[in-house]
Design brief:
By secondary structure, this protein is an alpha+beta fold. It is built from 6 helices and 11 strands.
């Protein structure tokens, strides 16, 4: 039996098992259809072993930083879909390039100014011996690998008169020092100054534990041109993927779509002012190429949760991390496993987008912008 036959049989078997399970779990007539699945203990990306998150914000400036810290260097990849991205060290993640692992990922507000957040993270890690080195010669510091993506929050009414002192170097150090398993959702970190269409955006996160025992998590700063809710109500586009009542429990009954009805989007989007930036992670050991495929598949999570997405006005960027804590046991089914991971990651990202907006709160003295006020 050749490799294609093995993989095809595995896919057919997996599909049949899924169909059988879905039939067995089909809700009774009249009950609300809900997604099945199991989250990690915190329902955060930090449920993935080896990942910590630190966040900091400046309420006066209305901006913030989220640092995804890998406890040990992690295999990474990136997929960029938006028409106006702002990024740093994304080319280093191309599969053909030398360095295969990263020390941290940064999501930041501030557009091009936010790219400076990686400077202080690099210095902080270099002082502690973290980073890539060519032999570790005496007196030669290592070079931490810290890919970064930024969203545009410069026009949200905060005080941006920072002249030569943008706050991002300071905020990223504060975020590093706060890194741990738990972190705030909504108006926090890189999502502090974000707007999701016509609503207040924010930082969102979610996780899923697969039947195999593998864990997938996502963290996202939602600053989209598109709307996260269906027109005429407050039902999240991500509703079919909701586990429990993690973003309101309204179900999917209110969903309806028209290609030209953007609902609560930004009606007059302008270039470089809208970006949804995210990172997904898994504890499964993957290669750089497999991480890239997982990232490509996970981008569908943005499309499931935001309409429209990946527009010319957006800078949508998605990183993928593999901490390598668990192995894929069957080499013959390896690509089937990658497909499963990518599909789960897309659902987890969609849920994280909704959770970011669900938990978002207004700035002090501002009303009428949040999902809860619809």
């Amino acid at each position: 039996m050749n490799r294609r036959t093995v993989l095809g049989s595995a896919l057919i078997g997996a599909a049949a098992s899924a169909a059988s399970a879905a039939s067995a779990k089909q809700p009774a007539a009249g009950s609300a259809a809900r997604a099945s699945g199991r989250t990690g203990p915190l329902n955060l990306i930090t449920d993935v072993e080896g990942i910590k998150i630190g966040q900091a914000h400046d309420a006066d400036v209305r901006t913030g930083v989220t640092v995804i810290l890998a406890e040990k260097p992690a295999t990474a990849a990136v997929d960029v879909r938006g028409g106006g991205p702002a990024g740093r060290e994304t080319d280093v993640l191309r599969p053909e390039n030398l360095v295969q692992e990263v020390d941290a990922i940064i999501l930041s507000g501030g557009s091009v100014y936010g790219l400076g957040s990686a400077d202080s993270v690099a210095a902080w890690m270099g002082m502690r011996g973290r980073g890539y080195g060519m032999g570790g010669a005496p007196g030669v510091p290592p070079s931490p690998i810290i890919p970064t993506a930024c969203l545009y929050d410069l026009a949200n009414g905060g005080n941006k008169q920072w002249e030569m002192e943008p706050p991002y170097r300071r905020l990223s150090v504060q975020a590093l020092e706060a890194a741990g398993d738990r972190f705030d959702l909504g108006t926090a970190g890189a999502g502090y100054g974000a707007e999701a269409g016509a609503l207040k955006g924010g930082i969102g996160s979610a996780s899923a534990v697969m039947d195999s025992g593998w864990t997938v998590g996502a963290v996202v700063a939602v600053n989209s041109v598109g709307s996260v809710v269906a027109p005429g109500g407050k039902t999240f586009w991500a509703a079919p993927y909701e586990i429990g009542d993690e973003f309101g429990g309204l179900g999917a009954a209110g969903l309806h779509a028209s290609a030209e009805d953007w609902g609560l989007s930004k009606f007059r989007p302008r270039p470089r002012e809208n970006t949804t930036i995210a990172c997904i992670a898994t504890d499964v050991a993957l290669t750089r190429v497999e991480c890239l495929r997982m990232a490509i598949m996970a981008q569908d999570g943005m499309a499931r949760a935001i309409r429209p997405s990946h527009a010319p006005f957006d800078g949508d960027t998605l990183f993928c991390l593999s901490t390598g804590k668990k192995q894929i046991d069957s080499p013959a089914l390896r690509q089937v496993a990658v497909a499963q991971l990518g599909n789960v990651a897309a659902d987890v990202l969609a849920r994280a987008v909704a959770r970011g907006v669900y938990h978002a709160t207004n700035y002090q003295g501002v009303t009428g912008k949040t999902w809860r006020e619809l």
